[in-house]
Design a protein that fits this description.
Blueprint lengths: L3 H16 L3 H10 L3 H23 L2 H7 L1 H29 L7 H6 L4 H13 L3 H9 L10 H26 L2 H6 L4 H27 L1
Amino acid sequence: MIAPGDLAVIVGLNLVGAAAPGPDLVLLMRTATRSRQHAWAANLGIHTGAALWFALTIFGAAALLNAVPQAVTAIQIVGGAVLVWMGQRNLRGGLRDRHNPPADLDEAVQRLGSVRSAYTRGLMTNLANPKIVVALTAMIAPLLPPNPSLATALIVLASLWLSSFALFGAVVHVTSTERVRRSLLRAGPYIDIAAGAFFMVVGTLLAARGLCEAI
């Protein structure tokens, strides 16, 4: 079994990494300013992807992935392209809505689309960014037992997932209060523009790094 102290350090390092500004957090906050329900769906989508990365790290597959540069390069190129595609959609939507912002909170929710689509956006955003593989391998993998038992692996996986999900859930709860949503109602299109630009920049840099490594 893993020592409680080591588990606490692993969870702490994971929370520090999760709290760092990135596509997942930007998507979550952008969604939460319009709808708490959609934001929770996005959070679940993000952590569906995170569960995969956690499992790969715990069972040693992340180290194998890092040992094959071509695999990470391919993920960077494809993931970067996905982030750019998502970013340009947000950007175009924000530019379109500048002169026609949502009239009320109900309309703001409707413009997000379905709850299922919010889940899908969360999942795609997380899977598109392989940075988590590098971070988990560097910070967390060295603290894991060399050959963890299934019980140990499941305890670590559950601890990482639940702590990260709870952290993002707290962000959802604070950002999606009615007071915050009402104060940001008119700013919705500009939030979309800023989020879209952020996604496009991150995606471009990610894809460019992958292309440079492939050449």
